[in-house]
Design goal:
Strand 3 and strand 4 form a beta hairpin. Helix 1 packs across helix 6. The chain is rod-shaped. Strands 2-1-3-4 form a four-stranded mixed beta sheet. It has 204 residues and is of the alpha+beta class. 75% of the residues lie in helices and 10% in strands. The longest helix has 97 residues. The protein is built from six helices and four strands. The protein folds into two domains: 99 residues; 102 residues, hypothetical protein PF0899 fold (2-Layer Sandwich).
């Protein structure tokens, strides 16, 4: 083999070895990059799955919370309907009481007397509903405590008040008014009635 041929062969052999080394390094680098990519992708995939599960759990919790809230709201609405029915029944019974003269007149008398005492004046104007004005106030006056009438001059207004029953007792100049109507009594009683009814019906 000539020197030229040997020189050429050595160069080719060196180039081949170098090329093979580069290829091996490239393959190694490619494998390392591939492994790193797999690890990264796996981590990202796990993170995505965890995030998706967290989102799904959050959606589930929100839906359960919303369902409970809707159920609680419906329950409260039903309770409110029942309580309103209770109030309506009490108010209806109060209105019917006015028609039961044997029970109502003593109550009306008591409301007038307590109003006169609370007014604490030497004269009082009694205001009644249209229905009660028809009962003849002079007859009503006979039922009022005699000792009270001895201390207070009572006058009866001819103008009816807008009330289902009871009375408004005022000073003669109208500057002081004691409202002892059935409507006012019912309104004052309503909060306590609601509390007692809720405790009795719902244990609240």
């Amino acid at each position: 083999m000539s020197e030229t041929s040997k020189f050429t062969e050595d160069i080719l052999k060196s180039a081949t070895e170098k090329a093979e080394s580069i290829v091996r390094e490239a393959e190694t680098e490619t494998q390392r990059a591939s492994d790193e990519a797999k690890v990264t992708i796996s981590r990202e995939a796990e993170a995505i799955v965890r995030s998706a599960r967290a989102d799904a759990d959050a959606v589930k919790r929100r839906q359960i919370s919303e369902a409970r809230h809707r159920a609680k709201l419906r329950e409260q609405q039903e309770k409110d309907k029942i309580m309103q029915d209770v109030l309506d029944q009490v108010q209806k019974r109060t209105s019917q009481l006015v028609e039961e003269e044997t029970k109502y007149v003593p109550l009306l008398t008591h409301l007038i007397e307590s109003g006169i005492q609370e007014l604490g004046d030497k004269a009082a104007m009694i205001h009644l509903s249209k229905t009660d004005l028809g009962r003849n106030p002079s007859n009503m006056e006979q039922k009022i405590n005699k000792s009270l009438l001895g201390r207070v001059k009572v006058e009866w207004s001819k103008e009816p008040i807008d009330a289902s029953g009871g009375a408004v007792i005022s000073s003669l100049d109208g500057k002081i008014r004691i409202v002892n109507t059935l409507d006012q009594r019912f309104e004052a009683l309503e909060p306590r009635l609601l509390i007692e009814a809720r405790a009795s019906l719902f244990g609240e």
